[in-house]
């Protein structure tokens, strides 16, 4: 070998070794750096303003108060989180703090062994957040903390209702049907639904079931992932009957829920549809999709009573948003979550109308918008709140439920098919 | 392609096989060659093992378990996942949707891109601009394409408006919401995105058609169509076969466009094998089952690729891929 070829060989080996080194570097998460600071990764779903800034400001403030902690904030679009979280939890380096809706979904994630028991770090202050925290506990072990509760109800455009000659918010199904007819007669799409994303369809089945089933049947059905009770069949039939009245916008099966002006939220925000059955967060989503000030134009009413149903008419479908912690930095994560639930940040969330129902009662005093106040009062007075079925059920069954209801919206399936899909996926 | 092979092959055979009059130097160069090969192939081999071979082995293993992606693999179910997938009407439908895209591509995209390539190969005004225009969509990622078309296709959106403004309002459909229309819509978007690639490929292929042959044909009195049919198209054969291969593999793996535009809906009307796989794996946490679907998809693609290479691509790749390289 002459010198040139030796040099060449060395160079080639160097490249080969370097590329392997680069691969190895990708695998490491480098959470703790040599200078003693700890880096936490924080995944949230607040990709749009104002919540994006609220979380970022909170992190900045927290870092200032805790110089040994650095937090990497990663905002991830809501629908993307569904696939990213399971993937991250089955990897070696999951995020330290991640968005979670609690319930059966969190229970499924706990099976990964990556989600941390934070009971001992939260016991001192968890009581301040009320009963909402129960949804982030599995078998009595606390895995996460909520920052808001939510209820599902109809958001509606008062101006379009007026235009169609509807005098009051519907309180019974008959009145709702009547409102739908009047809106159609006035050439307005009565209800927008984001059928493409499936979970908005499921809100109809879920709320009908909340109206048809008594509390015990509901709880038992969801806990056992067994929806064979007759009242669930009734709910399935209610959905089929309701779709038959054609209350939804054109092409609802292809409409996304919250992305873009053509989404169901966008249609209501821009006055192209009169109502949407959605969670409390919907107002801030809608406001993000239009330049019009929605404050004077939006109203809210709970899902109407269903005649002959066993459910308490004041009961509702709902849930909450929060964060869960993973093992590696469980204590630091819990400390950060305590900071996030302080009165100051809770108040900011309420004032920005991202959150209608804060977990800290003190913050509720700052609710100024009368509509938001009515949502808050409804939740406070509700006989009980049933968690969104897809969150309450184990993930596989929950997803199967959403798919089955979406099939009903596309004209496929029977009153029993939702229960059958849940049973098959259990 | 065959020209490259002709240059490479003798070189390799000499180094490896033919006896050399001098013993030791030949041996050393032989070793060095091996070493160089190893070093040069090293990074690629590491990447291949890490990102293709290992996941494949892992997925085949996972596919034998009822596993939600978390915790240890304890519930061995053998081939149940495979039976479940193949017996699921939704998955059968998904295979059907993939086949639809495969066939529609061959029937519509192939002739269309050859025709456009022939057109753009002629001396027409604004040729460069036109070439750029048809190729532009190919540069976009599938995700961007999907988001653009999602908004264009919404009810009373840009597409509907355009149709109405040219008096074709009767053609307006619920492009993504109607179960009987959605696959055609997706195929149209696939075509919009990939036709430019086909055209560029065929334009390149057309450069390999010797001008003398056309001239000779002309002298013999062949019409333009006869020249195209009897001279140009047969000589375009290798390019067409490569295109068909890429098109079928791409159609079988169709995912991004579907996932963003419809999530496989409504009611499974646009579910493809890949969207079914992601839906089961990541939305329902059925990782064992999802792995089985992934293996089915892999086997379909692999078997197709193998047969296609053996029978259709044989002439084109003789020596290049199937040839003996020691």
UniProtKB/TrEMBL annotation, chain B:
InterPro entries: MetI-like, MetI-like_sf, UgpAE/MalFG_permease. Residues 1-20 have a biased composition (Low complexity). CDD domains: TM_PBP2. The keyword Transmembrane applies. It is a multi-pass membrane protein. It comes from the Bacteria. Its main location: membrane. Residues 1-28 are annotated as: Disordered. It is found in: Cell membrane. Keywords: Cell membrane, Membrane, Transmembrane, Transmembrane helix, Transport. GO terms for biological process: transmembrane transport. PANTHER family: BLL4140 PROTEIN (PTHR43227:SF11). Belongs to the binding-protein-dependent transport system permease family. This is Sugar ABC transporter permease. It comes from Conyzicola nivalis.
């Amino acid at each position: 070998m002459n010198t040139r070829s030796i040099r060449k060989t060395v160079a080639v080996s160097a490249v080969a070794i370097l590329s392997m080194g680069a691969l190895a570097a990708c695998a490491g998460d480098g959470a703790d750096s040599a200078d003693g600071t700890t880096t936490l990764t924080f995944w949230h779903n607040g990709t749009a303003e104002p919540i994006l800034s609220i979380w970022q400001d909170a992190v900045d403030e927290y870092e200032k108060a805790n110089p040994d902690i650095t937090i990497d904030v990663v905002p991830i679009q809501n629908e993307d989180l569904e696939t990213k979280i399971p993937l991250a939890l089955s990897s070696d380096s999951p995020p330290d703090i991640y968005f979670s809706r609690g319930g059966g979904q969190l229970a499924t994630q706990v099976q990964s062994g990556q989600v941390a028991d934070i009971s001992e770090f939260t016991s001192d202050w968890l009581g301040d957040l009320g009963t909402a925290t129960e949804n982030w506990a599995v078998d009595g072990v606390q895995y996460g903390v909520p920052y808001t509760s939510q209820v599902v109800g109809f958001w509606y455009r008062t101006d379009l209702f007026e235009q169609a000659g509807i005098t009051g918010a519907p309180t019974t199904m008959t009145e709702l049907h009547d409102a739908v007819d009047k809106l159609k007669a006035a050439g307005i799409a009565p209800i927008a639904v984001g059928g493409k994303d499936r979970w908005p369809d499921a809100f109809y089945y879920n709320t009908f079931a909340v109206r048809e089933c008594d509390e015990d049947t509901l709880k038992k059905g969801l806990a056992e992932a067994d929806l064979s009770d007759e009242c669930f069949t009734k709910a399935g039939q209610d959905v089929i009957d309701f779709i038959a009245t054609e209350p939804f916008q054109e092409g609802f099966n292809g409409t996304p829920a919250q992305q873009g002006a053509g989404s169901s939220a966008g249609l209501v925000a821009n006055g192209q549809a009169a109502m949407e059955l959605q969670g409390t967060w919907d107002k801030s989503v809608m406001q993000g999709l239009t330049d019009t000030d929605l404050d004077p134009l939006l109203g809210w009413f709970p899902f109407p009573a269903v005649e002959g149903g066993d459910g308490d008419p004041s009961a509702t479908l709902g849930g909450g948003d929060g964060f869960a912690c993973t093992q590696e930095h469980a204590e630091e994560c819990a400390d950060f979550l305590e900071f996030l639930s302080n009165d100051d940040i809770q108040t900011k969330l309420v004032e920005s109308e991202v959150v209608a129902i804060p977990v800290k009662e003190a913050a509720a005093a700052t609710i100024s918008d009368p509509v938001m106040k009515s949502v808050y009062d409804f939740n406070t007075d509700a006989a009980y709140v049933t968690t969104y079925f897809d969150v309450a059920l184990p993930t596989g069954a929950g997803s199967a439920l959403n798919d089955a209801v979406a099939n009903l919206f596309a004209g496929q399936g029977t009153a029993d098919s939702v229960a059958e899909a849940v049973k098959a996926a259990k | 392609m065959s020209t490259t092979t002709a240059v490479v092959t003798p070189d390799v055979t000499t180094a490896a096989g033919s006896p050399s009059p001098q013993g030791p130097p030949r041996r050393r160069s032989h070793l060095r060659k091996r070493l160089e090969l190893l070093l040069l192939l090293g990074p690629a081999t590491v990447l291949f093992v890490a990102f293709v071979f290992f996941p494949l082995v892992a997925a085949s293993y996972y596919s034998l378990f009822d596993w939600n992606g978390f915790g240890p693999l304890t519930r061995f179910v053998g081939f149940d996942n495979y039976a479940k997938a193949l017996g699921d009407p939704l998955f059968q439908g998904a295979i059907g949707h993939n086949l639809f895209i495969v066939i529609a591509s061959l029937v519509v995209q192939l002739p269309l891109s050859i025709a456009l390539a022939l057109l753009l190969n002629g001396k027409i005004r604004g040729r460069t601009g036109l070439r750029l225009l048809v190729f532009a969509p190919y540069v976009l990622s599938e995700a961007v394409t999907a988001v653009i078309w999602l908004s264009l296709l919404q009810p009373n959106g840009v597409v509907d408006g355009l149709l109405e403004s040219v008096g074709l309002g009767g053609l307006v459909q619920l492009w993504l919401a109607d179960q009987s229309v959605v696959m055609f819509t997706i195929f149209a978007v696939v075509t919009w995105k990939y036709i430019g690639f086909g055209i560029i490929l065929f334009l390149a292929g057309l450069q390999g058609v010797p001008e003398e042959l056309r001239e000779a044909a002309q002298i013999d009195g062949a019409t333009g169509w006869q020249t195209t049919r009897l001279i140009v198209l047969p000589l375009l054969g290798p390019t067409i076969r490569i295109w068909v291969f890429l098109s079928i593999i791409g159609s079988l793996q169709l995912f991004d466009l579907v996932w963003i535009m419809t999530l496989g809906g409504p009611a499974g009307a646009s579910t493809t094998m890949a969207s079914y796989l992601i839906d089961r794996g990541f939305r329902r946490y059925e990782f064992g089952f999802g792995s089985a679907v992934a293996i089915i998809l892999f086997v379909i693609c692999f078997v197709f690729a193998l047969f296609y290479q053996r029978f259709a691509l044989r002439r084109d790749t003789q020596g290049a891929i199937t040839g003996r390289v020691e």
